[in-house]
Amino acid sequence: MIRPADERKIRRKVKEMNELKEGLTNRACTKKIIVGGVEIGGGTSVKIQSMTTTKTSDVEATVRQIEALKEAGCEIVRVAVADEDDAAAVKAVKEKISLPLVADIHFSPKLAVAAIENGADKVRINPGNIGGEKEIKYVADCIRAHKIPVRVGANTGSIEPHFLQKYGRSAEALVESALYNVGILEKFGVEDIVISVKASSVPLTVEAYTLLSERTSYPLHVGVTEAGTEEAGVIKSAVGIGSLLLRGIGDTIRVSLTDDPVKEIYAAKQILRACGLEENFVEVVSCPTCGRCAWESMGLAKKVSDFVKKYPKKAKVAVMGCVVNGPGEARDADIGIAGGNGFCLLFKKGEPYKKIKAENAEEEFFEELKAFLDNGNE
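The structure corresponding to this sequence follows.
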């Protein structure tokens, strides 16, 4: 007999699972906007963004980095506009790239207008630090005239004092600050808006975006700000962004790392894949290995993961350390390998089909894998 307390736990778990399932399929509730030909919101796929680390006025360096980001899978790129030289360079950069370009502006309405007039496909502003209504109207008029969208970015470091005084450093303060500034832009006729409410705290970020999603239909740019260096930053971003995406919250994402921005793209793609929001890739599953493993499966798993990156197709590959974690636990893999005592077993769809010596395992498996991926997964 199930105790009432256990029954409540079961019902709660079922409810949570249903909410996650609903979130993954319910992405049509936000407004769709267009950024340089790329759609955000309205049930479209979650778009991956990043930001250059170069000085924007160094056009060649900026373009090189943007091309590297594009090759990695970036769909929208942002550049910092810190001075007049950066604003002027927007035009030159735009002429050399194909990705939509977002100009990131703080403190100066004049620079925002200059970046827009030089061809920015979107601007990111924080109205809280760009001036009063007169300055915001100046920018809003230019945004409207050029028919481009704007991101209102609020974060814990730029909440208006009256909201901090009322709510403290909280999700409510972030959301109220963002929506207050959205209201000012709406007052001046701007309607293509993306909103972000980032914090460096994962729980605060999740709480703020969850609250915001209940109060607006504008598309949301999701991320954990100042997440840190690669290892910590990827984990914080995966937890924060992933938990929101699983609930259907988020239309475009940026993983913020203190590192090469290309790594942000790889991390973002992995987050989307883990959330089931990207299918067109080769998934590699591999066991952590243990004392039963009698061959170098760990090294092979890493090589296989690197090898399959160039294949934009849906497939599943397994590299397992021993027969315990072999075809049985990876039965749904399209192709795989499991080790034994001096030999390895190749399998397809969970069924063994070839036994090979362990010393030849890497070479023979790569031959089989390449043939499999090159021949349409047959």
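The radius of gyration is 24 Å.
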